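Example with several molecule types.
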Amino acid sequence: MKKLAVLLVIAAFVGTACFAIAADKPAKVTYEVKMGNVTFDHAKHEGLTDCATCHHTGDQQPCKSCHDGTKAPASKDAYHKNCKDCHKKEGKGPTKCKECHVK
Ligand code: HEC
Ligand code: HEC
Ligand code: HEC
Ligand code: HEC
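Resulting structure tokens for the full complex:
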């Protein structure tokens, strides 16, 4: 009986830990832009490359916390470069305005 209780406690702990990690990463992010909203499927992109390809500073802060046009290039340029350059290089994923910016 005692053994089972210990296992249950461990299971609950591991379960909470996994949940905490999963909750930090967004499944999808939607950027509201006048010319059309952009939907970024984070979960899908995680399998395509390393975290650091996009989170290039090693931590996982929102891009705009640095990309405000003073500390780092403006966010529009950073996103366009990150997103479009890879899609071009891979020959997969949208590269035309209206393929990302959907009204
Ligand atoms: C293809 C690019 C890309 C890859 C690969 C990627 N991310 Fe992200 N991640 C983003 C973008 C874009 C956001 C949205 C944040 C923003 O726009 O400011 C984000 C958001 C996050 C956030 C939330 C940040 C916040 O505070 O809002 C976390 C945590 C995170 N990513 C972790 C990870 C981890 C861990 C991996 C690897 C398993 C990973 N990401 C892979 C692009 C990427
Ligand atoms: C902690 C601050 C910080 C965060 C967070 C950050 N960046 Fe950056 N980023 C920089 C700095 C500073 C530069 C310019 C210096 C350099 O080229 O390394 C840069 C450069 C870039 C460049 C190259 C720009 C160019 O014109 O060559 C891209 C693309 C980029 N970041 C994308 C992103 C994306 C996408 C995110 C979020 C997933 C992000 N960055 C998060 C600080 C940050
Ligand atoms: C490291 C390379 C890489 C980066 C960086 C990247 N993508 Fe992608 N993206 C891909 C690939 C590869 C596909 C095609 C996946 C497939 O067809 O299975 C794709 C597909 C997509 C699609 C098609 C629909 C979907 O969700 O599958 C959208 C929209 C998209 N990307 C948006 C973005 C945005 C917005 C960013 C920047 C925040 C971004 N991507 C950054 C590689 C990348
Ligand atoms: C791969 C996807 C993708 C493609 C292709 C793309 N964009 Fe974007 N665009 C984004 C993302 C992501 C943002 C960042 C939105 C934000 O900062 O909230 C953005 C931001 C913008 C903004 C800035 C909006 C603002 O509020 O600052 C403009 C304007 C824009 N894009 C125009 C264009 C034009 C014009 C094209 C075609 C030449 C284009 N985009 C192609 C993903 C894309």
